[in-house]
Amino acid sequence: MIVTSKELYEKYKNFSNQKSKIQREIENGNLIRLNRGIYEDNKNVEGYLLSGALESPSYLSFEYALSKYNLIPERVKVYTSATSLKKHNKTIQNYFGTYTYTDVPVNVWRLGIKIIKEGEYSYLMATPEKALCDVLYKKRQVTSIIQLKTLLFDDLRIDEEVFNNLDLKSIIENCDLYKRKNLYFLKKYLIKEVKKNG
After folding, report:
1. pLDDT tens, 38-47?
2. What order do you get walking across the sheet with 2-4 strand by strand?
3. Residue 137 phi/psi, 5° resolution?
4. What is the pTM of this model?
């Protein structure tokens, strides 16, 4: 379970030196430091369950989410998250893994996020459509639909079958909000695909 310094000081309030008590618990392996003022007491918990607690607000997205949704073939070991904090790029490393946090536009923040609960843990994660848009927002900018397709299916190695089963209309609706050429060309490409497939 995730615990904060404040909660631990309250838990150990009967000890003469709460700080020393917390340090002993860390040394004995009963507490694992996640980030400043945040700890975990279960060393077997899956790292992705902790991502939202390390940096808030944030949600799992980008390559980690694409991998979870089988949109890309690689198994992504870094927990990649999006944050609404402007010009924010941060990496946190701890016992459970490497966590990266990258900003996305504030006006797309609430779109395409779902709350997932697993036992006593809960976290936010992008839908596959949102994760794809987030990735394209951060990638080098293309100048044509041909370049976009190369980026999608050659560079990122997006699975075309999984891609074609996404909610393409919802992606089209949200592309303009990112204000990036990659999303502009994605919208143009998807409009053509939707029309072609009826």
Report:
1. 999 999 999 9
2. 2-4, 38-40, 32-35
3. -60, -35
4. 0.90
